[in-house]
Write a structure and sequence with these properties.
Blueprint: H1 3-11, H2 15-23, E1 27-29, E2 32-33, E3 47-49, E4 52-55, E5 61-66, E6 95-96, E7 105-111, H3 114-121, E8 129-135, H4 143-149, E9 152-153, E10 158-159, E11 164-169, E12 172-177, H5 184-191, E13 196-204, E14 207-208, E15 217-219
Parallel strand pairs: 7-13
Antiparallel strand pairs: 1-2, 1-3, 3-4, 5-7, 5-15, 6-7, 8-12, 8-13, 9-10, 11-12, 13-14
Helix pairs in contact: 1-2
The structure holds uracil.
Length: about 230
C-alpha cells in the first residue's frame, strides 16, 4: 500500500493533511524521514508520524544451522523438518529463503517476509552463497573454467550463471553461487561426470554461521546482521 493511503487509513486524517504531514518531514519509515508520498508500505514496515508509532515491523528473520537429515519444508509426513527445530510461538508462520537438500548442512534463512526471501533468491540481486563441496572423484583441472561459462540445464532450458570456484583439495572445492537453481551444485558436478558426496552452505552475503552449533538458530535483521 502507498504511504499516503496507509496514513489516511490509520489516522483517519484527510488525504490533503496526510500529504502536508509527509511534506513537513514528520513521517518516518523504518526509522528514516520519508518524503515520498507513494513509498510502498506493508505490514513489515515500521511507520511513525509526529513521533508516534503507527505500526511496528512484525518481520522475523532467523539464521539456522541446518543439520543433515532435516527437510527444508514446513511439514512432511516422512522426515523431520527444519521448522521443528524452531522453538518459538511464531514457528508456523515461517518459510524458507533458499532451500538446502535433505543431506546438505549449513546456513539456512527463515522468515515470515515473502518479499525479503524473494529478493534474496533473485539472480539479479546477486547475493553470494558460499558452499563447501566434497566430491567422489578428484576435481578436474578445467572445472573452474567450465563452471564460469555455465552449465546448460535442459529441464529448465537455461544456462547457469557464472560461479566462482576455489579448489581446496583433490576432492573438495568451495563454490560461490549468485542464484539458487534446484539441486544446482549436484547437477553441475553430475554434468561433468563427478558426484557431490557432502554439501555445506557456509555463507550468505556477509553472514556466516560463526560458532552456531548444528540444530541451533539465532535472530538476524533484514540486512543479514546478527541481532
Ligand atoms: N545445490 C545443491 O545441489 N544442493 C543444495 O542443497 C544447495 C545447492
Amino acid at each position: 500500500m502507498r504511504l499516503d493511503r496507509f496514513l489516511s487509513h490509520q489516522t483517519r486524517l484527510g488525504k490533503k493533511t496526510v500529504r502536508q504531514k509527509i511534506d513537513a518531514g514528520v513521517v518516518s519509515v523504518n526509522g528514516q524521514v520519508e518524503l515520498f508520498h507513494r513509498c510502498e508500505v506493508d505490514h513489515f514496515t515500521t511507520v511513525a508520524m509526529d513521533g508516534e508509532l503507527l505500526q511496528k515491523n512484525k518481520a522475523i528473520y532467523l539464521m539456522l544451522h541446518k543439520p543433515a537429515g532435516y527437510l527444508s519444508a514446513t511439514s512432511d509426513p516422512q522426515h523431520p523438518t527444519v521448522i521443528e527445530l524452531i522453538d518459538e510461538p511464531y514457528a508456523a508462520d515461517l518459510h524458507i529463503a533458499g532451500r538446502l537438500d535433505l543431506a546438505s548442512t549449513g546456513l539456512l534463512l527463515l522468515t515470515n517476509n515473502g518479499r525479503w526471501s524473494r529478493s534474496l533468491t533473485e539472480p539479479d540481486k546477486k547475493v553470494p552463497k558460499v558452499y563447501q563441496v566434497q566430491l567422489r572423484d578428484p576435481v578436474r583441472d578445467d572445472c573452474a573454467e567450465i563452471f564460469s561459462k555455465g552449465i546448460y540445464f535442459a529441464f529448465e532450458d537455461l544456462t547457469t550463471s557464472p560461479v566462482e570456484l576455489t579448489i581446496l583439495s583433490d576432492t573438495s572445492v568451495e563454490i560461490t553461487l549468485y542464484e539458487g537453481r534446484y539441486h544446482q551444485i549436484k547437477r553441475m558436478f553430475h554434468a561433468i561426470g563427478n558426484k557431490v558426496i557432502a554439501l555445506h552452505r557456509a555463507q550468505i552475503g556477509d553472514l556466516t554461521l560463526g560458532q552456531l552449533p548444528a540444530g541451533s538458530y539465532t535472530r538476524i535483521n533484514r540486512d543479514l546482521k546478527i541481532i
